[in-house]
């Protein structure tokens, strides 16, 4: 009895809630740590990046306008769907990073828990970084964090799943939308994550995943005037400096690459606050301490 | 008021919930009889039918439950926060899944309309667990220090007006912070807490982390006084709250109290009238007025009194009172015969003291405990019905001339839980809010709740806050 | 029968000058948007079943202004519309006729023939519908044509540009002129285009302005823009007609138009009417739906109630 032949998955991009191929029609070989062929992944072009930014911008109003509770529910749903696909991702991470099944499983479990961690932040970050300010006058004064907009995210090159989620989840938890450039060498877990997002009630365009050459895609994103911020986690030192220079054209908020030994360590709030603007609103309250009725 | 458009009966089906003929106490992960075998009946206040027979906890059972909670505490508090979080997320999701069943159950046991349990109570219950689940692994960010510790075993006593919601307000933050709990639901509404115990089972919650002791005031008193309880949380009447404060005096027990209120709903002459009327109606007739933060005093600016009362009376005549399971019912049953007697007595006092009573035409069902929406005009601060909490669908209408006078009258009470402000002028909202001695101030809205929003009172309405980041403090050793 | 809109009433002085009109409109009570929308949404949770649903469906059908306002309208199309309005369901003759058909002025004559002998009225849009951007004499000529062709009702649009730039008197004078041109021959519906007026405060002001000028009906929208009738803006207009009758004794009708596609939607609106203004408005003399595809959904729901089976598009006619 011969062994059953499997059906290969054709890996597609995830843009605007749909799964297109690269408009360039190009693909490139993705291999495991031993050089064995895993799949052909789309080699995205700057036009794919452009389209992804359009999709992310379109989705921003609805996503940032949703209640924090709703965003938390959606992120938690992603964790539920990921839990169901644990085995799939263990295989993909093992292949992508050359890990044993048990090490890969640790990564996947940590990733699911990371989604849960961020799901619980959506309705709390405002309480931690916002608040009333006791100005010296008869004014109500409140500072609140708001998402900055469309964020380009260069996913870490080495940690193809835990690292990816660790940079992506904090961006969207607060209401930003994202254009993610997957690890160049190990893009498959990121592209598969797109499938999970599509079945988790994440509105189309909130997350867009591109695979291909990091430098080729990062450059148009870093200079794109409709991108509000960029996370350079996946850029090497030389590229990161070029991108930071390009980002200065519209004064994007830039998160410089930080070396991370261990993505499993508990994150702080830095990645949440990096993509938040603070809005401070004043309103007169009527005079304090005056004798007559001044209101 | 007869209309050509009569709504046909639209009953929510009872078949979604399966109420067993009897229930035990829930201790250490199991249902068990009371040590002395005592049981009591719980009835549906809208029909007086017996819903189930429930074990009645005595002091021996309280002791057993506290011991179970203590045993469970060691492991529970040692769990990484992210694991506790996942238990609470599971509970939140199961509550969402079983929302319809729980809403029907709550309507049957409490008497409130299905429209409220379905659209208000249950969504808030799930949201509360969801919110606090997310704090379990983020306590170092909550502003209570780098590694705040839980207190230990929490003894929690809750009232009958929002049974499952009050349970959520108590259990969610307690568990998230690493405590274990013994909770005593009210004697007229034990069922949703017992169903919650079943949800804990479905979620795989370790035994002893949550213990549910249905019973009467004596069980609550025993729980509060138990020497191995580290934290006491109580929601209920101010009188009992004071008793509890005396009981824990001299001990190391931390205490939070959420007690009664006599909320002032202040309507200024430039208020958006139609929306203010809705706010008044919600304020005092939501949950049949059996709400600690009810807007039970309407303070209306004298210059618009007649216009506002005309609009209010017109609106009240569209309220539909009847079968709580009918989806079109606005006003359900009063929770018990005792509560109905108390409301009736206070209302009689109101008339006796010279206030003018008015109710829309309202047919009351022949069985069950019912009270028609009622308003009293020509009420002043000196009237009993302006001072005492009635905890029923009875609104007292007072007037004021100036904003200063409104503030003075609103604050002129031993309570301080809630207040409402209706005006188009933003600076007036903020100035008045600044001066009101109330823990929750609603502006151009009323009776809005959210797990992120701290809730609690000033003065004899209690102390401590539930909800929000502030709500963590009660359960941490800080 | 309540007084006609043009008779004098306690508020007549309010329109004596531009500044008194402005002061009056700007002095109306404000609207809290969150509160208004919450009330409309809450009334939307009423559960209308069995006999109540049957009553509501038939009432809604009788309130439909069956509408075609397309550049591509032809006599053939209008005749088909008229036939449908008179006898909406050929499989069930007990189905009520609609209130009216609604067409452009040059189709009025054809429409009149198509509904002749029935209770169905002919309503005509006019005054350079939908944009309303034309000189006054052009708009009045439009109205005259419609009335001369036999229109029973005229649906006019207000000058939103004038309204939004604060020229309330101009808007008022135009409505009065149209009212006079209609005379007693045709009832006047005044369309505000709520989507363009944008705020609830504006919708409240426009409602009072229209009623003071003699509208028989106030109407939300043309159906030609993105945002048309909503439960909240209709609720607001119902509150306005309630308050206007209380102040003046004059009763004015309400017509939400555009975006009402399903029976569920229509029933929600009837609940709003019922619980805001009551039985006096639950009649097609005082409440209408401006709709086209709504009718077929009402018919399918009616068929389900009658037969117990879910219906389908093959069992209702294309008009």
Q: If you had to describe this structure to a student in words, what would you say it looks like?
A:
- The complex is a heterotrimer of chains A (295), B (478) and C (319).
- Chain A has 295 residues and is of the alpha/beta class.
- Helix content of chain A is 41%, strand content 17%.
- Chain A has a single domain (27-284), classed as Aldehyde Dehydrogenase, Chain A, domain 1, CATH 3.40.605.10.
- In chain A, a hairpin with a 5-residue loop joins β1 (27-31) and β2 (37-42).
- The model of chain A has no long low-confidence stretch (mean pLDDT 95).
- The radius of gyration of chain B is 22 Å and the shape is globular.
- In chain B, α2 runs antiparallel to α4 and α2 crosses α6.
- Chain B has helices at residues 59-78, 81-97, 99-110, 114-133, 163-176, 191-203, 217-225, 238-248, 273-285, 305-316, 337-352, 384-387, 403-411, 426-435, and strands spanning 22-23, 25-27, 30-32, 39-43, 50-55, 153-157, 180-184, 210-212, 231-235, 254-258, 264-267, 297-301, 356-358, 374-377, 394-400, 418-422, 440-443, 462-463.
- Chain B is built from 14 helices and 18 strands.
- By secondary structure, chain B is an alpha/beta fold.
- Chain B folds into 2 domains: 14-259 and 458-475, Aldehyde Dehydrogenase, Chain A, domain 1, CATH 3.40.605.10; 264-443, Aldehyde Dehydrogenase, Chain A, domain 2, CATH 3.40.309.10.
- In chain B, strands 13-14-15-12-11-16-17 form a 7-stranded mixed sheet, with helices on both faces. A 6-stranded mixed sheet of chain B has the order 8-7-6-9-10-18, sandwiched between helices. A 3-stranded mixed sheet of chain B has the order 1-5-4, with no helix packed on it.
- The mean pLDDT of chain B is 97.
- Chain C is α/β, with parallel strands linked by helices and 319 residues long.
- Chain C has a single domain (20-308), classed as Aldolase class I (TIM Barrel, Alpha-Beta Barrel).
- Chain C is built from 13 helices and 8 strands.
- Chain C has helices at residues 18-26, 33-43, 50-63, 75-86, 108-114, 136-148, 160-164, 168-182, 194-197, 200-212, 231-248, 263-276, 294-307; strands at 64-67, 100-103, 121-126, 153-157, 187-191, 217-219, 253-255, 289-291.
- Chain C has an 8-stranded parallel sheet with strand order 7-6-5-4-3-2-1-8.
């Amino acid at each position: 009895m011969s062994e059953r032949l499997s059906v290969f998955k054709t890996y597609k991009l995830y843009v605007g809630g749909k799964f297109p191929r690269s408009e360039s029609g190009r693909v490139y070989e993705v291999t495991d740590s031993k050089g064995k062929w895993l799949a052909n992944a789309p080699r995205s072009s700057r036009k794919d990046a452009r389209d992804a930014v359009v999709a992310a911008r379109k989705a921003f109003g609805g996503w940032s306008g949703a209640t924090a509770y709703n965003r938390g529910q959606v992120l938690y749903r992603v964790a539920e769907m990921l839990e169901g696909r644990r085995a799939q991702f263990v295989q993909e991470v093992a292949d992508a990073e050359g890990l044993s099944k048990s090490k890969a499983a640790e990564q996947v479990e940590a990733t699911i828990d990371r989604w849960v961690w961020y799901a619980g932040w959506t309705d709390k970050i405002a309480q931690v970084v916002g608040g009333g300010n006791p100005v010296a006058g008869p004014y109500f004064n409140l500072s609140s964090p708001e998402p900055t907009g469309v964020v380009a995210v260069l996913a870490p090159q080495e940690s193809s799943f835990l690292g990816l989620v660790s940079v992506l989840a904090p961006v969207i938890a607060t209401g930003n939308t994202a254009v993610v450039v997957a690890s160049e060498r190990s893009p498959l877990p990121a592209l598969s994550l797109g499938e999970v997002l599509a079945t988790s009630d994440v509105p189309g365009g909130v997350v867009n995943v591109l695979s291909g050459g990091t430098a080729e895609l990062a450059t148009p994103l870093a200079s794109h005037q409709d991108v509000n911020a960029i996370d350079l986690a996946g850029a090497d030192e030389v590229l990161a400096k070029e991108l930071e220079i390009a980002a200065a054209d519209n004064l994007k908020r830039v998160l410089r690459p930080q070396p991370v030994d261990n993505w499993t360590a508990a994150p702080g709030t830095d990645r949440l606050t990096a993509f938040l603007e603070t809005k401070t609103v004043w309103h007169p309250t009527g005079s304090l301490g005056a004798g007559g009725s001044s209101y | 008021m007869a209309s050509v458009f009569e709504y046909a009966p639209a009953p929510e089906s009872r078949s979604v919930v399966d109420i067993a003929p009897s229930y035990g106490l829930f201790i250490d992960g199991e249902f068990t009889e009371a040590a002395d075998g005592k049981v009591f009946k719980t009835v549906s206040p809208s029909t007086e039918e017996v819903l189930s027979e429930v074990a009645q906890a005595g002091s021996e059972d309280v002791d057993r439950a506290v011991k179970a909670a203590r045993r469970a505490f060691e492991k529970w508090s040692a769990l990484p926060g992210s694991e506790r979080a996942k238990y609470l997320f599971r509970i939140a999701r199961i509550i969402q899944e079983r929302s319809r069943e729980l809403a029907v159950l709550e309507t049957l046991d409490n008497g409130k309309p299905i429209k409220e349990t379905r659209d208000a109570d249950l969504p808030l219950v799930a949201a509360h667990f969801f919110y606090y689940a997310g704090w379990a692994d983020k306590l170092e960010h909550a502003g209570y220090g780098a590694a705040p510790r839980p207190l230990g075993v929490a003894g929690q006593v809750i009232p009958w007006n929002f049974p499952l919601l009050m349970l959520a307000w108590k259990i969610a933050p307690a568990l998230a912070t690493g405590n274990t709990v013994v909770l005593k639901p009210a004697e007229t509404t034990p069922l949703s807490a017992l169903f919650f115990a079943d949800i804990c089972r479905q979620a795989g919650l370790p035994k002893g982390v949550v213990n549910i002791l249905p019973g009467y005031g004596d069980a609550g008193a025993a729980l509060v006084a138990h020497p191995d309880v580290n934290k006491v949380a109580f929601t209920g009447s101010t009188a009992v709250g004071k008793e509890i404060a005396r009981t824990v005096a001299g001990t190391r027990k931390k205490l939070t109290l959420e007690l009664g209120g006599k909320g002032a709903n202040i309507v200024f002459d430039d208020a958006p009238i139609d929306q203010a009327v809705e706010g008044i109606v919600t304020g005092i007739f939501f949950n049949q007025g059996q709400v600690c933060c009810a807007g039970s005093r309407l303070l209306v600016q004298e210059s618009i009194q007649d216009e506002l009362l005309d609009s209010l009376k017109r609106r009240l005549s569209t309220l539909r009172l009847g079968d709580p399971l009918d989806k079109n019912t606005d006003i359900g049953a009063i929770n018990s015969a005792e509560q109905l007697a108390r409301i009736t007595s206070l209302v009689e006092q109101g008339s006796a003291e010279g206030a003018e009573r008015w109710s829309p035409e309202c047919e009351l069902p022949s069985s069950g405990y019912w009270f028609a929406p009622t308003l009293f005009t020509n009420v002043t601060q000196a009237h009993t019905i302006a001072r005492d909490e009635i905890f029923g669908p009875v609104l007292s209408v007072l007037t004021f001339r100036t904003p200063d006078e409104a503030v003075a009258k609103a604050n002129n009470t031993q309570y301080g839980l809630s207040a409402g402000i209706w005006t188009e002028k933003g600076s007036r909202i903020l100035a008045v809010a600044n001066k009101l001695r109330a823990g929750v101030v609603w502006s151009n809205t009323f009776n809005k709740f959210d797990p992120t929003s701290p809730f609690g009172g000033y003065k004899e309405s209690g102390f401590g806050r539930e909800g929000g980041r502030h709500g963590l403090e009660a359960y941490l050793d800080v | 029968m309540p007084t006609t809109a043009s008779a004098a009433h306690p508020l007549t002085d309010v329109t004596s000058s531009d500044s008194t009109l402005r002061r009056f409109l700007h002095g109306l009570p404000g609207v809290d948007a969150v509160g208004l929308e919450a009330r409309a949404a809450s009334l939307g949770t009423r559960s209308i079943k069995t006999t109540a649903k049957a009553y509501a469906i038939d009432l809604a059908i009788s309130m439909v202004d069956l509408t075609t306002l397309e550049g591509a309208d032809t006599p053939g199309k209008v005749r088909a519309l008229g036939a449908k309005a008179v006898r909406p369901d050929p499989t069930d003759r007990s189905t009520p006729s609609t209130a009216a058909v609604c067409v452009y002025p040059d189709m009025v004559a054809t429409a009149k023939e198509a509904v002749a002998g029935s209770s169905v009225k002919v309503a005509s849009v006019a005054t350079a519908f939908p944009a309303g951007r034309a000189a006054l004499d052009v708009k009045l000529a439009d109205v005259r044509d419609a009335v001369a062709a036999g229109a029973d009702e005229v649906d006019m649009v207000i000058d939103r540009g004038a309204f939004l730039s604060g020229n309330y008197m101009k808007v008022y004078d135009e409505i009065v002129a149209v009212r006079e041109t209609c005379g007693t021959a045709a009832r006047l519906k005044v369309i505000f285009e709520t989507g363009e007026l944008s705020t609830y405060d504006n919708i409240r002001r426009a409602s009072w302005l229209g009623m003071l000028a003699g509208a028989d009906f106030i109407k939300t929208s043309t159906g030609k823009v993105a945002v048309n009738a909503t439960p909240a803006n209709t609720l607001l207009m119902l509150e306005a007609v309630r308050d206007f009758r209380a102040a003046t004794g004059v009763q004015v009708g309400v017509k939400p138009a555009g975006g009402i596609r399903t029976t569920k939607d229509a029933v929600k609106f009837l609940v709003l009417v019922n619980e805001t203004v009551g039985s006096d408005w639950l009649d097609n003399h005082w409440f209408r739906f401006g709709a086209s595809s709504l009718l077929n959904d009402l018919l399918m729901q009616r068929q389900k109630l009658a037969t117990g089976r879910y219906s389908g598009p093959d069992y209702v006619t294309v008009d």
